[in-house]
Amino acid sequence: DVRKAITMDAKRPGDLVYVLGGTLEELGGSEYYASKGFIGNRVPKVDAKKAQALYRKVHNAIQKGLIRSCHDCSDGGLGVALAETAFAGGFGMEINLSKVPQSGLNRNDFLLFSESQSRFVVTIDPKKKKSFETVLGDAIYGEIGLVTDEEIFRLIGIHGMTVVEAKIYDLKEAWQRPLRF
After folding, report:
1. Helix (H) or strand (E) holding 17
2. Is the dihedral of CA 7, 10, 12, 14 positive or negative?
3. Angle at 28 between CA 39 and CA 21, to 5 degrees
4. pTM of the full structure
5. Mean pLDDT by groups of 10 residues along the chain of 181 residues
6. CA dist 5 to 1, 68, 119, Å?
């Protein structure tokens, strides 16, 4: 039903930001490694059973009206997905990277730019938190932050220090610049 389609843009200040799915050290072939001149050996792998289970839960949450925005984590990883969600909606975000579900990562850059598969960034109405988390059940997820009404994208790193603080429109310009011919 096209009337239930969800877009990637953050919709309202005060909405909660979640990441669905786990992040692993899977940067082989990533945009991040390419920008550093590396190739890497750990390429992202898909666990079909876990992916299908998560996709069904996301679909169910969308059908129940529990998700306001949803964006996949693909090229560029979590960092890019979060920034795109923020600037597409014209809102800022406050994100705590220590709350991102992950395994074996102790570097902010790896956490932000891993291209582990079957992950989503979603925003939800805080009043629907309990219902949303009930639908997710045993899925891997983390509530990682908040949509704000200021136009600042702020990431607090895994060790409690601010690692990114930028205006969302500066991020959007950096994202769009290479697309202009």
Report:
1. strand 16-20
2. positive
3. 160
4. 0.95
5. 91 98 91 85 90 97 97 94 97 98 94 96 98 98 98 97 97 89 79
6. 7, 10, 18
